[in-house]
Amino acid sequence: MDNFSFHNPTRIHFGRGQCAQIAREIPTGARVLLSYGGGSIRHNGAYDQVMAALAGRHVVEFSGIEPNPEFETLMRAVELGRAERIDWVLAIGGGSVIDGSKFIAAAIVLDPAIDPWLIVGNRTPLATALPLGGVLTLPATGSESNFAAVVTRRATQDKLSFKNPLVFPRFAVLDPTLTMTLPPRQISNGVIDAFVHTVEQYLTVPNEARVQDRLAEGILQTLLEIGPRTLAQPDDYEARANMMWAANQALFGLVALGQVQDWATHAIGHELTALYGLDHAQTLAVTLPWLLAYRKADKEAKLAQYGRRLWQLPGADAAVADAAIGRTVAFFEAMGVPTRLSSYGIDAGEAATAVAEQLRRHGRTRLGEGGLLTPEDCTAIVHAAA
Ligand code: NZQ
Ligand code: ZN
What we know:
The protein is of the alpha/beta class. It folds into 2 domains: 11-178, Rossmann fold, CATH 3.40.50.1970; 184-384, Dehydroquinate synthase-like - alpha domain (Dehydroquinate synthase-like, alpha domain, Up-down Bundle). Helix content is 46%, strand content 11%. The chain is built from 13 helices and 8 strands. The protein has helices spanning 22-25, 46-53, 71-83, 95-107, 184-200, 210-232, 237-250, 264-276, 280-294, 296-311, 317-334, 348-361, 375-384; strands spanning 11-14, 31-35, 58-62, 88-93, 132-136, 148-153, 158-163, 171-174. The strands form 2 sheets. Strands 1-8-5-4-2-3 form a 6-stranded parallel sheet, covered by helices on one side. α8 crosses α9 (280-294). The longest helix has 23 residues, at 210-232. The radius of gyration is 20 Å and the shape is globular. The structure holds 5,6-dihydroxy-NADP and zinc ion (ZN). Residues 141, 193, 197, 266, 280 line the site of zinc ion (ZN).
């Protein structure tokens, strides 16, 4: 098991009616920027509950943060926040709104002489950030209690992340009832994203991180059990609650401790979104199985463990590894998320070349565990997704 330090400062309020906690979390004199997306918060009850909890505070709304949040949109929020002398940011939505709000919280107080685009990719240090809270309406990314954010600049086809402990949300409200308005596509996306986060931190090489292995397997097992149930029964509170907690636990920091991590599926996936506009989870489903197959020799021991413990597959390592990849494909497809680029009308040959070019341009030339995966390897993986 590798060395690690762990600290996650986000206070979580989980369960029905927990938006009321915001009244205790945000000081009464605060000037709050309320950031959200295209309007789903008006249908799931989040907006009314949050506004009730914020009674007495000066609240300025910023709506229109789009999926895969865009730098230009976020900069309009930054200008509004500066003009209104905002001192708190409260995000309501999925990963895009929360990620975008992390950027806003950092950019509002950035030295005006520095180009805020440099925050993305961690190309400028941050001295401070405004305090941020989150109300999660789409379980998927774990953004509500981690310190990562992904921002897109569509004109230049850049989708890049930044990480900084200053943008850890101070608190997160996880009320499963707020997810009941989610369309099936977003439920499926959430299950796949959480599944792949767990796999990226677990399915590499044996590293004697036994607690984290079992934690990962527990999260994956939960997603297998409740994924189809959340799709079939939108008003099943227990299924939504377990999904929300599983997605949070998958990426709030614990699963990775002491482990060797991969993250190449996400790197390729971000380029596919930047190039073709696919949803984040759709890119993961078309990449992960073929990456696992491509790296089968390196990953065989862990693939066999995954196959035996998660899918109860019998046999020798090599056969279990193959069968486990097949089960993964079947699960993604059963959740309604295709595993082939052809399902989106994308030519895999063109995509393979374009992804490799993007990875080189972004300096992402040594990916995956051991840094062994080159853009040429990624070309082969994307080809295999035809
Ligand atoms: O904009 P609104 O109207 O709110 O609609 C959203 C949006 O259209 C809708 N939605 C959210 N909650 C809803 C709802 N619709 C009905 N009922 C509700 N309760 O869902 C749509 C998609 O939302 P989005 O926030 O884009 O989805 P997701 O949570 O999957 O976030 C994806 C973004 O997060 C990044 C991705 O790259 C992508 O940009 N990620 C962030 C990570 C992190 N911060 O750690 C890690 C991830 O790997 C990922 O990269
Ligand atoms: Zn993800």
